Amino acid sequence: MNIAVCVKEVPSGTSHKRLDPATNRLDRSGDSELNPFDLHALEEAVQIREGGADVGEIVAVCMGPASAQRALQKALALGADRAVLVSDDSLAGSDIAGTAHVLAAVVAKQDADLVILGQQAADADCYVMAAAVADYLERPVVTQVADLTVEGSGIRAKRQTEHGYDVIEAPLPAVVSVSDAINTPRLPSIKAIMGAKKKPLETLSAADAGVDSGRVGESGAQSIVRSVAPPAAKSAGVTIEDSGGDSAPQVVEILAGKGLL
Amino acid sequence: MPGLLVYVDHDEGELSPQSLGVLAKAASLGGEVTAFVAGSGVDDSWAGSLGGHGAAKVLLADDPALEGGLSQPIVDAIEASAREADAVLFGAGVVSADVAAGLAARIGAGIACESTEIALADGGVVATRPALGDTVMVESGFRGTGIVLARANAFPVNESPSGTAPVERVAVEVKPWSQAARPAGREAAEAAGVDITEAEILVAVGRGMGGPENVPLVEELAKAIGGEVAATRAVVDAGWVPYAMQVGQTGKTVSPKLYIACGVSGAIQHKVGMANAGTIVAINKDPNAPIHEFADVSVIGDALTIVPKLTEALRSR
Ligand SMILES: Cc1cc2nc3c(=O)[nH]c(=O)nc-3n(C[C@H](O)[C@H](O)[C@H](O)COP(=O)(O)OP(=O)(O)OC[C@H]3O[C@@H](n4cnc5c(N)ncnc54)[C@H](O)[C@@H]3O)c2cc1C
Ligand SMILES: Nc1ncnc2c1ncn2[C@@H]1O[C@H](COP(=O)(O)O)[C@@H](O)[C@H]1O
Fold it and tell me: Where are the domains of chain A?
């Protein structure tokens, strides 16, 4: 069995996120990192292998700018055997369906039986990519998986919905997105970081990836940003820097002052 | 007036309030709105009751393959109707989002997620969402059919529904691969000792509390302040506390007068369940955690140290 893990490069949590007013696209000029939610997708792939399933290879797949190579290096350090980056100027500005089309096209060429995605991209806060990729691939999907087992030629997945937990079974090949509570991602060792540099990292153009150019990029995008505005102003809260629990009396005082105690 | 189709999700006979809210919103835009329901053995009059929530007409896809609460057969069922609509609108929900996403891929449509406003402009539908940690409002329109997925609790349900709408049954052809995934049971939710939606004070445990062994620290604080314990999905998924204690999009929506979040990042899906609390206190060591953006009192520091000190300070009052 082979596993593909879709990973995204996102602006670092600590860098200031903003939309570029000229293009209305996310300004990606600051620091970026591997989408934190995708650490869980990678970890799950590695745990499936360590759990004794016969995993041939784990391939990390990413669509993004050239800088996303760094995110893929991290994916390699965390246990992917090789990585594929689809990077092409013509892909910039792709919408969700366009991105899903590209990821599906690349995944289809990787001979992967199981495709794992993160629960959401930290920059977009959507949770739609897995089901969109699965539709292009015509494969079963289970999203928001909190517990996953590979059993023979299928998977058994527990997902949370508004109604509690459902257990869903699906034959392979299949697509899943995993909850950020499914596992605790490991930190890469120095050895793994060094080793990652020797693993294959292939960069494909849109044409190499077999992408339908009509579906991608700004011109293929079917949703168009019309305007960007500040949100309604909200009164700022009080911030207290704590040291060794010394904030407790002040918090109690504030709550008492508001008549909450 | 563009043709609006609203997907209405349901589970064990209960219509999704998130879908009903979007249906009411769509109807308020002025035109005739069609609701779409998929299921197995669905009663026409039950589907027709969507008229009371704003539907002028209901399309009903009724097929045994639509039984299981899985999204892919529903994409097959809604595809043809969606192609005829100018926009297809979805309330928040795991199945709804999966249908919306699968449909976007299927028909190559644009999708606007996390929408908190839906309007008509220039002959089409436009959707607005707070983005980038809710620091900007982004308004999007569509080429071709637009798909709008609402943020949880963005649109209120019509609380006094009356009237019915005509129901039209549509032909369903479910693809074999769409039926490959199979429901294999639902875990019965453990009976909750308390109903957190009724509590006036909630103390929430998030992953920043470190592990299940530290949940008692939060319980002690809750006891000292006369509140109940709530939780994030991350700690519920990890098995620290039962699902009944979860606040957020796939948990409960609460509006206590005081919400103390301990080691909670304040992800959107958590925020939508508690943003209406009277006063929000956040204890989080990361000054950049999203929760500090909307807390009334932000304590930057180690919750493992602060929570017991807070309990102590309350007890000694
Ligand atoms: C479709 C969908 C539905 C979802 N539904 C829900 C839902 O209903 N409810 C929900 O809660 N989530 C939901 N989520 C998950 C949500 O996106 C987040 O993953 C989750 O809320 C994170 O939980 P958390 O805050 O406990 O953990 P984390 O995001 O890991 O945050 C932990 C926080 O603790 C802080 N911290 C760490 N150590 C300490 C310390 N010693 N002292 C103080 N602070 C510390 C960290 O800085 C961090 O901010 C959903 C997601 C999706 C995609
Ligand atoms: N450009 C991308 N390249 C690779 N994977 C992606 C990309 N965008 C999204 N994903 C995957 O899809 C998941 C959910 O993203 P989304 O639905 O866009 O929030 C992420 O956690 C990634 O696994």
Answer: 3-220
From its phi and psi, is residue B238 left (phi > 0), alpha (psi between -120 and 50) or beta?
Answer: alpha
**Interface subset of B 84-123, CB within 8 angstroms of A:** 93-95, 97-106, 108-114, 121
**Tens-place pLDDT, residues A227-244:** 998 888 777 799 999 999
Q: Nearest residue of B to residue A175 by CA position?
A: B181
Interhelix angle A129-137/B71-84, rounded to 10 degrees, is 80
Written as six digits, the tokens of B11 are 């589970």
Instruction: Indicate yes or no: CB of A160 within 8 angstroms of CB of B250.
Output: yes
CATH number of B4-179: 3.40.50.620
**Which superfamily does B196-316 belong to?**
TPP-binding domain (3.40.50.1220)
Cα of B265 to ligand 1 centre, how many Å?
A: 5
d(CA B165, CA B171): 19
The model's pLDDT over B258-271, given as tens digits with 9 standing for 90+, comes to 999 999 999 999 99
Closest listed residue to residue B126, CA positions, set A220, A123, A99, A227? A227
Strands across the sheet with B279-284, in order?
A: A238-241, B297-300, B279-284, B258-262, B201-205, B228-231
Which fold would CATH assign to domain A3-220? Rossmann fold (3.40.50)
Chain A nearest-CA distance from B298, in A, is 5
Question: CB atoms < 10 A from the CB of B185, how many?
Answer: 11
Does the beta-carbon distance from A224 to B109 stay under 8 Å? no
Rounded to two decimals, what is the model's pTM? 0.96
Contact A143 B97 (CB under 8 A): yes
